[in-house]
Amino acid sequence: MGFLIMNDSLIRFSYVVLMGFGFPIMRYMSIHFETLNNNAVRFLSGGFLFIFICALKYRNELVKLLREPTIVLYLILLAILMTCNMYFFINGLKYTSALAGSIFGIISMPLAVFMASIFFKDEREKIKQTHFYIGSALALMGSLIFVIYGNKSSGSNDFIMGSLLLGTAISIQSIQNLLVKKISNKLNTIVISASTATLSGIFYLFLATQSGVIYQLHDVSSGLLIGLILAGMYGMLTGMLFAFYIVQKQGVIVFNIIQLTVPLSTSLIGYFTLGETISIYQGFGALIVILGCIVSLRKKHYEVNHK
């Protein structure tokens, strides 16, 4: 039991640190690549990596797909949601910052908890507590402060536009997490990640080809393109596989609690890699967001630590 707890703790810590690097990487690539090309290359490279892993160690999982065709439909729906989610998210990063992306990731917590409580009994008790609504209100207020003062510091409406795009992305992500939890009872996490990443990559490749933006890749240096491929593998392993694994093994709420610390690592790494800074008021708003999420999830966090 002690080994399993230590192993789970290591996974949580690794997720926070790796995602701290992940947001600056996504921000950098969003500046240098058109969104459709960006996501097509990243998802396909990550998806092929997952397929290779599945071919080596999880071939027996494919039998489950043949026995239950409805799972395939769920996987397709999950890929569609992921495609929409990341389209808005990458565009949002382009107009804001790496830190803004991570902040909006935790703003989605109250919405994710509420959505999960509708469909899953083990997540339902949370919304019966008064502090859930108090914390949610604090998180919303903090996010508004962060967005308003972010727009003032940028001196344009781009930050507001980016914030709206990020907000749309996290709304879709809340629904997406419900499907992940439902499917994870029947399929291994790596199989879910492989199908989601590959299908989303195919969707993006089709859209990039139809719109003609795919030809922009001819003008990109081979070094930058290789960097995007590696970034895709890195992003899928951290942002998708780790996230899906934690949702599967520890639940939606525990995953959301872990997300609270991601902006801290993102802001530190973003400062050194991209030169990103935030105003005092934005920092205050970010702290209110984190405080609000801690308050809204407090009782469940206590229960998790004392089981």
Automatic annotation (TrEMBL):
Residues 15-146, 162-297 form the EamA domain. Coiled coil: none annotated. InterPro entries: AA-Vitamin_Transporters, EamA_dom, EmrE-like. It comes from the Bacteria. This is EamA family transporter. Its main location: membrane. Signal peptide: none annotated. The chain crosses the membrane at residues 12-29, 41-59, 71-90, 96-120, 132-149, 161-180, 187-208, 220-246, 253-272, 278-297. Pfam families: EamA. It is found in: Cell membrane. Keywords: Cell membrane, Membrane, Transmembrane, Transmembrane helix. It is a multi-pass membrane protein. GO terms for cellular component: plasma membrane.
